[in-house]
Amino acid sequence: MGGKLLLPNELLLMLSEKWTCRDQQLRQLRALVSYDRIGVVQPKLHVQATTPSTVVVYGPHATGKSRVIEAYLESHVTKYAIVNCRECITGRHLLERTVAAVTASLWIGKSEADRDDAYNGRCENIAALVVHLQKLLKMHEKFVLVFDGVDKQRESPPTLLPALARLGEYVPGLETIMIVQHPPPRFLHQTGVPYIHFPAYTRAQSIHILSRHPPDIFLELPTDVPDYDAEVHAEDKAWLWSRYCAAIWDSLAQNAARDLVSFRAICTKLWRPFVAPILAGDFGTRDFSRLLVAQRRLFQDETVLLDSIIASPTLAPPTATGQDKPSKSSAAHELPYYAKYLLLAAYLASFNPAKTDALYFMKSTERKRRKKGGGTARSGGRLSQKRQVPRHLLGAAAFTLDRVLSILHAILPYDLRGTVDIYTLVATLTSLKLLVRGGGLGAGDALEAGGKWRVGAAVSWEYVQGLARNVDFVFADYVAE
Amino acid sequence: MEYEKVYVFQPESERPAKRRRVEPQGLQTSWRRRRQVFDRVWSGQQQAIDARLDGINASTVNKVWHFLERAVLDEQPGRIPTGIILTGADGATGPGIAKQVAERIRVGKHRRILLSLSSSSGTNLKALLKTLIVKATSRRTGSSDDEELDDEDDELRNPRSTGPKLLNYDLQLLQDHVREHRTEQVIITFEDTEAFDGDLLSEIIELLGCWQDRIPFACLFNIATSIDFLQQRLSKAAVKALAGQVFDVALSSVEVEQVCEAMFDTDTPLWLGSALMSTMLERQHDYVVSVDSFAAAMKYACMSHFYANALSVFLGLEAECHDIAADHVVAVRQLGSFKTYARRLLDDHQVAVLKEHLESDTALRLLVRDKVAKGRQKLSAMVQTLKVIRLVQQRLPHTPVSSMSSLYVQAMSGKLIGSPLIRALLLTIRKAPSNIVVTLLRDLMAFHTEKHTPTIPDCQLLLTRFEDLIESQKHSTKPLRSEDDSQNTTLRTTVVAQKVELSKQKSALSEQDKKYTELLGILTSGIEDIFASNLVNPTDLIFHEIFVYDLKSPYREVFTPRPRHAIERALATPHDYLDCDCCGSGQGDEHVEATLAATQPATAVLYQLYLESGSLINASDLWQAFQAVLGDGGEEAETMTLFQRALAELRYLGMMKSTRKRVDHVAKVMWQGL
Q1: Where is the signal peptide (chain B) (predicted)?
Q2: Angle of helix B336-347 relative to helix B351-359, nearest 10 degrees?
C-alpha cells in the first residue's frame, strides 16, 4: 500500500467518456477499490482510505457492470483476475478456474522461465482455494478478484457465496468483487459490505448511448447527388438515427425491450427496412416525420420483439428471399398415418377422464351410446354449480400404454394388426417428445409394467385438430367436455 | 493309459467324418450357384440404390456446405451459425446429412472438426461436455494430417505443457486443441434434437455461445417436428445465441420412390410382385420407418427368392443354364404356369412340341431359358410403359401424376390395363388441344430415343401431319380444338310441353378441327395399343414363378413381427407349441383352446384365470382358483410354489403389478388383443 495517491481525474474522465452515464458508479469504484497502477501520475491523497475486502456490484441485465469493472481494473489495477461464472459447469470448476485465472494473471509480464510450472495442485473445495490463494498471493500486496455473475453459478454449494465474500479475511491484500444481478437481502451473511448499484438506463440515457454509433443510411454513397460526401452522410445519419431510436423507444422498446442490448438489437433490426424509402429516393434524409408516417407499419408490428433462431423473412435483406422456399415446403414433412392416429388417441387418453372411456369408445351403436351416457351428461340444462375449467386448457394427464392402444383400436376406421411397428412408433414419438414418459410408479424405467405416458407440450388442441382434419377424423365426437 | 493320471491329448491327424450330411441333396445342390447369382444381382442393385440416395439430397448438402463455408468467412459475434435441417420423423434417427457433410469436410480446404452429439451422449451438461471434448480431441482435424504431425500433437495434448490441469469437462481443453491445430470451425451436430432435454439443450447452447468468441462453433440440428417446437423448448438466451438457417431434406416418400426406381432401372432379373410391393409401400407410408429398412426389405425379398426357390438358378448367366441338374428340370414341369402352357399347347394340337418338352430335359432347359428371358423383357417393357404413362400425365393439364411405385403395383397385379386411370388418361388425350398434343408427341419421341421407351409406330409421320395441320391455319394463334372437348359443346335448354329438355349442342368446328380430331384418334389408338401390348399380367407369363417373387408372409414375419400377440397366444394355447399328448385331445377344435387343465404349464393356467378377472385381482381368490384347477393331487406346498412362480412370470412379462390401492390385490396391466 505504498502510494495512497489519488488518481488524476483525467483518467476517470476518459473512462466515463467511454462508458457514458456511469460516472457515479466509476467514482464509487474509485473510492472502494484500491488502485495501484504504476505509471500514472499519482498526486497525494488527503485521507488515508481503507478499502473493503468485498464489494458487491449489482444491477439488471445489460447495464454495463462487467464492462465497466473490467475497464476500470484495466486502467487502475496492476494485478487482477476476472472469472466468468457462466462458463463454469460446477462449483469445483469455478474454484479450479479461479486458481487458473489468478495464476495466469500473476504470470503476465514474467518470462517463461519464471513461470511456476509446478503449480498444478487440485482445488477440490473452498478451503483448498483459500490455501492456494494464500500461497499464490504471498508475495503480492494487492490483488483484485472478480466473480462475474456468481449468482448464476451452476451446481454451486450453498456456502459458496458467503465463503467467497470472506476470502479477503484470510488472504491479505485480496479484494473480491462480486457481480450479481439481483442480490437477495443478506445473501453474503455478512454486514457492512459495500454495494455499487448499476441502475437500468433511462430513456434519455439509452438513446444517448445508442446514438453515439449511428449506422450508415447508404451502404454506398449516392453518385447522382454531386455534393453528398461522407461528411454530410455522417451528419445526416447521426441526425436521423437519434430520432429513429427515440421513436423505437416510444413505440416498442419502452414496454418490451428496456435493456440496452435488446433495444439496440431492435433498432438495428428495423433500421434497414426503415431507411429503405430513402435509398429508393422517395424521401430525403431529413424527412423524418414523413418517413415515420410512411413506415408506421414497422413500429406497430410487435413480432420483432420475439427472438427467433431464423431471421424473420419480412425483415431479411432482399438477397435472402430465395431461402424462403424450403420453409414453406417443410410442411410436407408429415407424420405417417398411424403416428397421427396414435397422437390423436394419446391426446384423447390424456384429456378424457378414464371413467368416460366406455361412453366414448365402446364399439356399440350410436343409439345405445347416447342412451347410456349422452343423455345424462347434460340432462339438467342448467349450468352446474361448480365452475369447471375446460379440460383442454388444463395440463395433460398420464395414461397407461394399454389405454392408449385400446383407444387407438377404437378410433381407427378399420382393424389394426398390432405389429412391432406400433411399439416402435410409441418409442419414436417418445424420442420426438410428442409423447412424454412420466407419472406413476417407475416412470424412469421403460420396462416397468404399467408405465405411464403423457402427450408432450407440442401436442396442443390446435395441433391435434390439424391432425384430425388431415386424416378425416371427427375429433369433436370423442372429446369429453 | 489307465495308470496315467494326466496325459497330453493328441488328436489324430484326420478328423472323423461328420455324421451329418454336409453335401446338399436334390434341389439343394444348386444352392451355391444361386447364392452367387444373388450376390451378383444384389450388389448391382445396392450400388444403384446407394447412388440414388446419395444424389437425392445432394443439393441440400451443397447448401449446408455453403452455409458452413460462409460461416467461416464472416462470423457474427456472439451468435452461433446454426443450420437447421428438417428431416421429418423418418430421417431423424439416421445419421442423415451429417455423414455426407463429414465427407465434404475431409476434402475441404478449411480445418474443421465435426462432432455429433445424440441424446444418449449424456444426461447432464457435464457428461455431454465430456463426450464432446473426448470426441474432439481424439479425432483428427479435417485436413489430411501427416503422421508426423499427429505424433507431435499427441505429445502436446496429453500432459498440458502449460498451466494447471483442467477438469475433463472444461471447454478450455477444446480451445487449446483448436488453437494447437489451428482449427477454423468446430461443427456440432445434434442428431436427435427432440430427444434432448429442453433445459439441457438450452444450457449447452448458452455455454457454447459464451465460448463462441474463442472457439469457432457452428451447429447443425436435425429436426423432426418443427422449428417452433424447438424454440418453445429453448430458453430465451439460447434462442438469442443461435443464428439459424433452415435446410430441407427430401421427403421419405421421395426417397422410397427413388429406391423403387433404382430397382426398376437396373437390369434386374427378379421382379417383386404386387402384393409384396404394396405391403412394403404401405408400411413405409403408415409407420415411421427409415428408407434403409425399405432397401433391406427388398434385399430380404431377393434373398428369400434365391435361397429358397431352387428354380431361381435359371436366372443365372445364360451360359450356365446347360448344366443345371435334372431334378431342377423335373421341378420346372410341376410349375403351375408350365401346366397352363401345356394345356394351351394341347388345345392348339401341338402335341409333338409338348411331348418333346416333357421328355427331353435339354429342350425344356432351352425353353425355360428363352421364356424367362422373354418374360423379363416383357416386364421391363412394362416398366418402360409406366414411364410413358407418367410422361403423358405430366404433359396433360389438370392430371395428377401417379407415383412410379403405385403404377408398378397396379401393373404387376395386372389390373392397370382397363383401369379407370388409363381410361381417363386416354379420354383426356382425346380432348387435348393441339399445342399440348404436339409437345406430348415430341416428348414421346425424345423419350424413345433416350430411354428406349415404347412408342407409336410412324410417330414421326404423325407428328409431321399434326404440324402440317397447324401450319395450315396460320391466321389464328389459337390451338386446334378436339371435337370431344367439352368446351366445344354447349348445353341447350328447351321447354317442350312444360318439360325442360337438356340437349348437347356441338359448336361449329372448323375443317382443321375435324381433321385434328381424326389425327387425335390415330394417336389415341396408338397409345392404347402401346398400353394393351405392354401392360401384361405377370401371372399370365409362363415361368413367372421363376422371375417374379410375390410372397408376403416371409416379409411380414421378419419385418413386422407381433411379439405381444405371440406371447398372448402361447400362454392361451400352450398345446400348440408344446405338442404334448396330455392336453391335445381336441386337435383343431377352436373351443378346446380356452379350457383349463392341470397338465398345462402353471403360467398358462394362471394366465387364463388372469384373463377372466377384472382390473383388480384378489391374490387369495386367484390362488384358490389356481388350486382348484391343478386339483388336489399334489401337495399344497408344491402347488403354492407353482403358483408363485407363475405369478412372478406374469409380472416379469409386464402383465400385472402390485397396487397401492389394496395390499392384497394385484392390478391387471395388460389387456388381451391390443
Answers
A1: none
A2: 150
